[in-house]
Write a structure and sequence with these properties.
Low-confidence stretches: 239-244, 458-467
Oligomer: single chain
Structural class: mainly alpha
Strand order of the largest sheet: 1-2
Mean pLDDT: 83
Order of helices and strands: EHHHHHHHHHHEHHHHHH
Radius of gyration: 22 Å
Strand content: under 5%
Shape: globular
């Protein structure tokens, strides 16, 4: 290739071999997810300490939990749209940096009102990091390992969620609840700096947005050093549809008219169970007589179980697509229902919590991977952000439903029956999603759904004035 060449973009990305630079990108993406996961779980471990120090009822922190989730509902699609417009990398760096700064400010709060406001803005940033990380890694990864890579990256979330419990068990008895946020802030700042210095922008974003050919070619040489890419070479991206970017209309057109709503239902029902565990599980365990240290360690089993699910999905997601998630929904429902049954033996109780985490966190990992596989580049961030926002509706229900049931004097051991029921609903939606993918791709393996032609705004001919 001595002269200028034209490279087909998808073939170029899919032709990569796994190199050290690719592994570095994957690790950084997983760490970014872990940083977000840490913050997702942090308030659940801080809450029991605040309730004791501020002499509050268990329902007093429901507004703070809810504010964070509302922030994520807004931040997912908002920063997803900004990621499609201005790039994935800037949104990731800005989001992680702001989370760290806001968490440090939270260590100084003395009133629930201040906590509510700050948690809203933290949620805004947390919700925006997820879709941009998923989109970035999906667009840097060859198709043959994309599903596995997205699962591996998503393993950062349960790893991050498990960490505050371990920090709480070791540091909170000595340094107080503020230690959870200080440790989290340091992690987030370190990861933000690493992403800013090492992580590239998405090559598909650079090419399809246009105007950054030099940056795209510099990255291309980094990704494919075996190719002699001459000056003046360019990429052809026939699947790009710039006019569709920033619009949610293509998410509900063509074959996606069923896929997107089913993804949203799956996400909402699973997020209800996930956030119920993040919000209430440490409090439920302490209410059952566990100490701060013991409750933190036991609650961490939920996310550690999710790491096991990630290992299974690394093997299964490319071959079986949505099918493993159906089983996780239906098996997870009774396990979630049993998380607060304190009459179980310690070993049985630990297995139930770990099994519930295996299913619930596994579903989340699988859905994150599927979002990177099912949506094309032009709408990947907005598709991921929109699905995450729909999931926040279920997440928002977690603290509200828990607070409502406590107000109705429902016993602690029966609270998890609410998220368990929604997991059954999610299982039905997941079955329908499986059928839709099977019809589209002719097997359990999944691929990208194309953007429907009638969902793309066709520009007017500047001379004739017609399309």
């Amino acid at each position: 290739m001595g002269g200028a060449s034209v490279f087909e973009l998808n073939e170029f990305v899919d032709g990569q071999r796994l190199r050290l630079v690719s592994i570095v990108f994957i690790v950084l993406s997983a760490l970014a997810m872990a940083s977000d996961g840490y913050d997702l779980a942090s308030l659940g471990y801080i809450a029991p300490e605040l309730l004791k120090q501020w002499h509050l009822k268990p329902t007093a922190l429901v507004p703070a939990f809810s504010a964070g989730i509302v922030g994520m509902m807004i931040g997912g699609p908002l920063l997803g749209l900004l990621g499609d417009r201005y790039g994935r990398k800037p949104m990731i760096v800005a989001g992680l940096t702001m989370i760290a700064v806001l968490d440090l400010i939270i260590t100084r709060v003395r009133h629930t009102g201040d906590l509510v406001v700050l948690r809203f803005f933290v949620g805004l940033m947390v919700g925006g990091v997820f879709p941009n990380v998923a989109a970035l890694i999906a667009e840097l990864t060859p198709r043959r390992i994309r599903g596995k890579t997205l699962v591996i990256v998503s393993l950062g979330v349960p790893l991050g969620i498990a960490t505050p419990g371990l920090v709480a068990s070791r540091l909170v008895p000595i340094h107080g609840w503020q230690a959870i946020l200080v440790v989290g802030s340091l992690i987030q700042l370190l990861v933000a700096v690493a992403v800013a210095l090492v992580m590239p922008e998405s090559i598909k974003y650079l090419v399809e947005r246009g105007g950054r050919d030099r940056d795209a070619m510099r990255l291309a040489r980094r990704l494919r050093p075996e190719l002699a890419i001459a000056e003046g070479s360019r990429f052809a991206a026939p699947s790009a549809r710039p006019a569709a970017k920033g619009s949610m209309r293509p998410l509900f057109a063509g074959a996606l008219v069923l896929v997107t709503p089913m993804l949203w239902i799956c996400q909402a029902s699973n997020q209800m169970a996930n956030f119920f565990s993040l919000t209430w599980l440490p409090t439920l365990l302490q209410a059952g007589g566990a100490s701060t240290s013991s409750a933190g360690a036991t609650a961490s089993l939920f996310s550690l179980g999710g790491l096991g699910a990630g290992v299974v999905l690394v093997i299964a997601i490319d071959r079986l697509g949505v099918v493993p998630l159906v089983g996780m929904f239906l098996v997870g429902a009774p396990l979630v229902a049993g998380m607060a049954i304190t009459s179980l033996s310690p070993t049985a109780h630990a297995l139930v919590i770990a099994g519930a985490g295996f299913c619930v966190t596994g579903i989340q990992i699988g859905l994150t991977a599927l979002l990177g596989l099912l949506y094309p580049t032009a709408i990947r961030s907005v598709g991921t952000g929109g699905t995450q926002a729909a999931g926040r509706l279920g997440a928002l229900a977690a603290p509200l439903v828990g607070g409502l049931l406590l107000g109705l004097q429902v016993s602690m051991s029966k609270l998890p029956f609410a998220p368990a029921a929604l997991l059954v609903v999610g299982g039905v939606a997941c079955i329908m999603l499986t059928v839709a993918c099977r019809r589209q791709f002719g097997s359990f393996r999944v691929g990208e759904f194309s953007i429907a032609q009638d969902a793309v705004k066709v520009p007017l001919d500047p001379v004739a004035g017609t399309a």
